Each structure stands twice: as C-alpha cells, then as structure tokens.
Amino acid sequence: MLSKVTEDGLTGPAREAVAHPGPSLLIRGVAGSGKTLVLRERHLRLVSEGIGPERIAVLVPSAARAAALRDQLQLRISAGYEEIVVLTPVEDRKSV
C-alpha cells in the first residue's frame, strides 16, 4: 500500500523522518523516492528550531546532488550563516 502524499510532497514515512527528534538520521531509498526532499525539509526544520546551518552536515552520493541541495538550502534560509555543509562521502571538505 502506498503512503498518502501531502501537499508539501512528503509521505507519512518521509514526514516522520523530517520530524525525527534524534541528532543523526540515515535516509535510504531508491532513486526518485524523495530522499533529497526529506534531507532538505529536515535541514530546514532543524534550522527553524535554532540550530545553525553550519552545525548540520549532510552527506549525499554525488557532487552534483550536493551542489543542488546546497543551492536549495541557500535559497530557503533567510538568516545569516557561516556555511552550508553538503558533501559526498569521499569529498575533501577543504576543497569546498
């Protein structure tokens, strides 16, 4: 049975992942399942709760996805921040 998709594009399980209270969360799924949407919305929720964007690290599988997610977050975060950290598992943070 498929989960109902809400107007913000999140399914029930995705909404639970965004609202997850713990500090760490692994999000897995097949291509096109909405992982990036969940990562973006969780990051924005944490920022809205007062966590500085530079204190949140996000790992994604490719440099292109990292750049795209970083751009999406920069457009949605209005408060000042030092940097948004979206990396790949093999990326050297010094080169970003």
Give a quick rundown of the structure.
The protein has about 100 residues and is mainly alpha-helical.
Give the overall shape. globular
Structural Rg = 13 Å
Q: What fraction, in percent, of the residue positions are helical?
A: 25-40%
Strand order of the largest sheet: 1-2
Secondary structure layout:
Blueprint lengths: L11 H8 L15 H14 L8 E3 L3 H14 L8 E3 L9
Parallel strand pairs: 1-2
Provide an overview of this structure.
There is one protein chain. The protein has helices spanning 12-19, 35-48, 63-76; strands spanning 57-59, 85-87. With 96 residues, it is mainly alpha-helical.
Features:
mainly alpha, single chain, 6% strand, two-stranded parallel sheet, 96 residues, 3 helices, globular
